[in-house]
User: Fold this.
Amino acid sequence: MAIGRMGDQVIAFVCLLSIWWVIATLVSTPLLPAPAEVFSALSKEWHEQRLLESLMVTLRRVLISFIFAMALGGLLGVLMGRFRLVNRVLDPLLIILLNIPALVVIILLYIWFGLIEVAAVAAVIINKLPNVAVALREGGRMFDHELDEMSIMYRFSFRQKLMHLWWPQLFPYIMIATRSGLALIWKIVLVVELLGRSDGVGFQLHLAFQLFDVATILAYSFAFILVVQLIEWFILQPLDHNASRWQKGGDNA
Amino acid sequence: MLEFTVEGLKLSDQKILAALKIQLNPGETHCLLGPSGCGKTSLLNVMAGLQQESIMTNTNGKSQNLWSQQKPDIGYLFQQPRLLPWRTIVQNLQLVEPNKELVLRMLNEVRLQDYADYYPAKISLGMARRVALARCLLLKPELVLMDEPLTSLDLPTAREMRKLIKRLVCDHPTRSMIYVTHNLDEALELGDTVSVLGNTPAEVIYSNSIDNVPREELEALLKY
Assistant:
């Protein structure tokens, strides 16, 4: 089944590549380079050691922003889901944060704190935090009251409640927030780097943009898409599979 | 002797249960019979320390002490098994008793030793109720509360569960039980004493030792 699915994906990828190659050959302009030119740009950036370095810098920013956004947004969301008073007090703030354009937050933080790393990462966190809070608020609201009562009756410790009662119930919502979070965060990180940092993929895109070097722009984009896809395949999907084993049947553990 | 007294219970500001007192000797099983919706489950919840908002206070507004002495160690068998679906049977039990050997011994007692590594979704309701019974007993409770544990079970499964309850709880020399049901046969087989709830708000309309209860009289009361 997995091989069949992967086969479908390879076929779709080859089709897209072919369509791109045909169009690029027909229009024959540097504004739409052929796949081979993009691969060549990718190879050049790799050999000149800019690609890996830029990817690592951007990944570091993505990772730090992701951890803080998930932790703070998750805590906020669960508290809002569990306690009506907290929800009433913080809901207006959440709506404001959800509706402020990402660009405005980035610009304001750069103006207030300067073009520094902390401002860059904080801007990404502030942009992502409300989305996580909204997802986890739903998770907090869906806690099973009957299992809560059971855990009281059977004297679960706080740690037992956290690990065996609350975490499994929140996990699907955490995965939703994680997937949408990664997709959103890395896009915002690129904007942050483009506007105010002197390293990372966003900065390289900025340089390529100034030279109208579309091949390099696409090369960096594909490289980062590949990184995110690898995270999905090797971290998120195994986590998902492991956590949902009890739902998928099988006779036993 | 265990003695529980409550001034009354309310649900959404409506009084559902009048003042009530239950007395239990060590090792005694008291069956509580009554129609659906008369507050039996709410009463068990309050006894267990849950649903405290339902308790009606004294006329002076002070909350009362429900147990005449210290609240006993309670094991509660809910109507639904309430197992954690994402943990295997043995993992569910180990949250109550970390010693795996004791857990497996208890699983053996309820004849589920072969299902230790199964997830709850893969076993029947009758088996899940037996797991819940095992979890309850692993607490070594002084008082067991059971809320219609045979509901929705087919006859052979219910019979087997009844035997287990009798062997593991009723025949225990010091373990007391309050057993809520609306099935007269269950009450007569398992109980030492019986109370019948009736009227609105519900109150005890009959209470006696099982030995002194004429079946016809109880049947008439339950129809009422």
User: Anything to note?
Assistant: The helical segments of chain B are 40-48, 89-94, 100-109, 125-138, 155-170, 184-190, 215-223. Chain B has two domains: 2-73+141-223, 84-140. The first helix of chain B runs from residue 40 to 48.
